[in-house]
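Why this split exists: single-chain examples teach little about how molecules sit against one another. For that reason, every record in the complexes split bundles all components of an assembly together and asks for one structure covering all of them. Below is a record exactly as it appears in the raw files.
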Amino acid sequence: MRHIDWYKDFVDLKYKPSKTDVVCLFRFEPSDKVSVVEAAGRIASESSAGTWTTLTKLPKTIKKVMATSFEIDGNFAKVAYPIEIWEPGNISQLLSGIAGNIFGMKALENLRLVDVSLPVQYTKHFRGPEFGIEGIRRILKVRKRPITGAVAKPKIGWSAEEHATIAYETWIGGFDLVKDDENLTSTQFNKFEQRVKLCAKMRDKAEKESGERKSALINITGETNQMTKRAKILHDFGFEYAMIDVVTVGMSALQTLREVCHDHNLAIHAHRAMHAAFDRNPRHGISMLFLAKICRLIGVDQLHIGTVIGKLVGTRHDVLDIKNAITSQNNKRFGSLNQNWNNIKPVFPVSSGGIHPGIIPDVLKIMGNNIVLLVSGGIHGHPNGTRDGARAAIQSIEASMQSIPLYQYARSHKELGAALAKWGRLRPQ
Amino acid sequence: MRHIDWYKDFVDLKYKPSKTDVVCLFRFEPSDKVSVVEAAGRIASESSAGTWTTLTKLPKTIKKVMATSFEIDGNFAKVAYPIEIWEPGNISQLLSGIAGNIFGMKALENLRLVDVSLPVQYTKHFRGPEFGIEGIRRILKVRKRPITGAVAKPKIGWSAEEHATIAYETWIGGFDLVKDDENLTSTQFNKFEQRVKLCAKMRDKAEKESGERKSALINITGETNQMTKRAKILHDFGFEYAMIDVVTVGMSALQTLREVCHDHNLAIHAHRAMHAAFDRNPRHGISMLFLAKICRLIGVDQLHIGTVIGKLVGTRHDVLDIKNAITSQNNKRFGSLNQNWNNIKPVFPVSSGGIHPGIIPDVLKIMGNNIVLLVSGGIHGHPNGTRDGARAAIQSIEASMQSIPLYQYARSHKELGAALAKWGRLRPQ
């Protein structure tokens, strides 16, 4: 083949993806003067082997490295990529192809990477979660109810000593986990090493007093080697988790830390700060669904996916679709692509952001009980403080799991009553 | 102070930023029912110490960790952050604050991080570029003209042997650099080690024959430790650069590799694949200007910033603003924030994407001669092949620098003539 047309030759509506193809679902809006077919072809071209002009020489094997737009339906196109063009185990390279230059093409007004389907020949080079939902439940010895956690609030400003005291109150109130906020790493007013040390001491005290397992999601976010050192410190102080802001550190460091956490037997709690910079506009960018799948593949054990209700965006449809993608073994739903996860474990979905005891039953109704529920301002803002706040949240979960209306349960549970008095819901809804 | 109002207390229009504050410029659109002032306050709150409800306890030092919206002008707000809340040398943490949760707040319809001004107390913890523009010119022994480079096209599909042969033709045609494409790392059909080895051999041959310095931008994109190994291989084979897809690997790994490249005396060529997922929509996300400043701070030596003309988006205004931000020592322009770069070197701006000999003078008129000019399809598509294509591009640069119209210069330069015959511009414009 002497010449390639850099869009026509990348469209074949009769093509059936092979079992080893990587398949992407894109939503696209062509620019003026660009047809739908040309736009779909250019997406496949620019994200695989394309260029903008005829070339004097071509590789003999060019056909083997070309992607194919094989299904076009309104503003949606499915593109298949030969497995041979992807380096095994290199997520950043995958992104540089299917999520790279194409977002900046003049031929398109808008482009969204909606979903991906990864063949086992691709996924087999990744660990996936070390523990997954079952493993985390085993660690924390919590069988059926949601895992509970709280961030010390305000986000930042507490000293390491104050932080550890708040952690203790949270644990003693009945919570399983305390969590750092996404922008707390190591600062003059709260140094990482000191926070870890003091929290470990308080955790031991809380475990002894409560007879329950207690742990912390301490934020190691930073440069890769710094994170590696911090993960080791967490392990040395007996913590089961490392928390990472996975988007702001990036996928290369996340892959590295996945190995480090394997070596230190640590679960990864993944915060997604910055995701909404590229996933909020439904017409452009990268979907949270895609990001969640990549995080599962690399192997985080817990991932923030939204709350539906609360201070942050995320529709019911989207949040449940993401939940399904990270918890099912073989998922196809709401028009998204099929994904066979094979032996890759499910990720524990995390809901957070503006949750208080008064809305916990609503959150659980939507999300189910197999979630990590972070209630932070919603416990630290309790009129009687953090400990009672945690109790109120636990009571709200109990009521919800027993299908008892909150206002009724609150009659015999004063901490819940005080919470509902502050945040509403004392009467039947 | 017992209570904090999580937006009012984060707005102070009389506040004057201190010399140590980090200052951000945001463009924002409040949701219905949220006032402009409330929206500006919530941005400052959520990106520093805020939460959504009153708290029972507050740190005594809360005031020291709160950000302040101090200037609101239409849809724009400037926010000042105390230096104490940022960990020295931790870019990911900075992003988790000023570019984190705020993009997903329901209180806003859209939010764009337009620009940042970093005080010397922040920038002093970073290396910046190892070589910068002057250092790169010294390495390549090119004084005034643009640095020339080409990607082997198609993007992928060549074997390592074919790749090295194309590199040789590119160099012998007169180009300084050959470059990998963003989605080429190490695959069955073109393994990294083999490509490096064969390109080094061809580079030695080309240098000997031409008497000029020749180098390559070979893509090490991958997991952090993999990149570290590959950087060392590049050094061992005498290359002066490592190429990294900085967005798809992420800022944590880029910081790590900046240290590795320092140890191996390697310049960093930064490809920005994926940037348009979050910087294309002018109403939401993160600007390329911001990303470019962060890349300069960490220390890349060359950065893709757009071409204005060509296949990828980027207005003249935006591209020149970014160019100014990465090349000036003290920049304030087009309404963006002031940035004193102190002793941090300038970054070589890279223009690429759809450039051919016929439009090189237009590109240089906009961008100046102090750029790295990548002409890829525009040389490999030359009717007589890569070597003549490179010659045609060099001739176009010569004509441009001597202010001779291309159609006139082409009369005595047949390679340029053949290029213009293919891509137009044989007559006066």
